[in-house]
Amino acid sequence: MERKSELHLERQWELYRRSVAEGMPDSDYKAAVVAGIEHALSRLDSLEACQCAFTDRPGKLRTSSNARSRGRD
Description:
- By secondary structure, the protein is mainly α.
- It is elongated, with a radius of gyration of 20 Å.
- It has helices spanning 2-22, 28-72.
- It has two helices and no strands.
- It has one domain (2-72).
């Protein structure tokens, strides 16, 4: 749960950074900053998807192992 909160805070920070960067005059620097922020956001998407898959997996394994143990009784 703590990690999810950290990811949420990091996402909020990157969204804030993007809103500030979008107000900058057009330049190569702005393009680089926005590209870096977009990369950070896509990394966060990946981490959150991985975390969701990881937290979902134990329940599925537990369910399947429970079903197997019932079949042996």
